[in-house]
């Protein structure tokens, strides 16, 4: 990591500053012996900065930043060889990380269980998950309300064994040695949950096929 200069977060409220400091302590405990406080704080502050420009609920931002930082550090630990569990890592990328990639992630994590790791991201992340996509997935018994639109980062994509792209085009990052698949799946943005059902079902079929390719038994 060449530059650990912290972004300017002088406009934080007292509560936000305390929440970030508390998050840094929690993360330091989780990554003891792997990453020091300076690295953790840099990831936490840059994650916060990425969400602060798009989200309008200030009190929720430290939690989003902590969750995203945890994911980024987990990915970095895999890239740098600090984490060896043998599980394949799949990353789903689309434009807004609000519909297609979130539904694919929901199917994959539900069906793969503890046999794999999966993340998602967008080239232009939205602010909320598509409500119609949430409804369509609920019909399959899968709750994706705990997820949130987020960008992808180099360490997340570099940690992947398989990168599935859906509509992000030239914006999708490409790294040598990583397996890429582009899925031609319609963008559900603006559609009703009835209209999204065929997209959902297409994604479910594709996820089952992907699991077969990875030799992961579907639950």
TrEMBL record:
<dbReference type="Pfam" id="PF01451">
    <property type="entry name" value="LMWPc"/>
</dbReference>
<dbReference type="Pfam" id="PF21234">
    <property type="entry name" value="Phosphatase-like_N"/>
</dbReference>
<dbReference type="InterPro" id="IPR023485">
    <property type="entry name" value="Ptyr_pPase"/>
</dbReference>
<feature type="domain" description="Phosphotyrosine protein phosphatase I">
    <location>
        <begin position="88"/>
        <end position="213"/>
    </location>
</feature>
<dbReference type="GO" id="GO:0046685">
    <property type="term" value="P:response to arsenic-containing substance"/>
</dbReference>
<dbReference type="InterPro" id="IPR036196">
    <property type="entry name" value="Ptyr_pPase_sf"/>
</dbReference>
<dbReference type="InterPro" id="IPR048716">
    <property type="entry name" value="Phosphatase-like_N"/>
</dbReference>
<protein>
    <submittedName>
        <fullName>Phosphotyrosine protein phosphatase</fullName>
    </submittedName>
</protein>
<keyword id="KW-0059">Arsenical resistance</keyword>
């Amino acid at each position: 990591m060449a530059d650990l200069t912290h972004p300017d977060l002088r406009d934080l409220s007292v509560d936000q500053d305390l929440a970030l400091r508390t998050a840094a302590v929690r993360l330091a405990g989780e990554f003891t012996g792997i990453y020091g406080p300076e690295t953790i704080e840099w990831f936490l502050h840059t994650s916060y900065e990425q969400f602060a420009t798009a989200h309008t609920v200030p009190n929720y931002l430290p939690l989003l930043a902590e969750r995203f930082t945890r994911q980024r550090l987990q990915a970095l630990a895999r890239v740098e060889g600090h984490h060896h569990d043998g599980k394949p890592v799949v990353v789903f990328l689309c434009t807004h990380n609000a519909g297609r990639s979130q539904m694919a992630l929901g199917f994959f994590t539900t069906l793969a269980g503890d046999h794999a790791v999966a993340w998602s991201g967008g080239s232009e992340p939205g602010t909320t998950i598509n409500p119609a996509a949430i409804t369509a997935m609920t019909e399959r018994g899968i709750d994706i309300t705990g997820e949130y639109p987020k960008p992808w980062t180099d360490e997340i994509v570099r940690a992947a064994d398989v990168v599935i792209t859906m509509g992000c085009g030239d914006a999708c990052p490409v790294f040598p040695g990583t397996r890429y698949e582009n899925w031609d799946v319609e963008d559900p943005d603006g559609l009703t949950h009835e209209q999204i059902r065929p997209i959902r079902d297409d994604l479910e079929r594709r996820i089952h096929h992907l699991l077969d390719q990875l030799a992961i038994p579907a639950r």
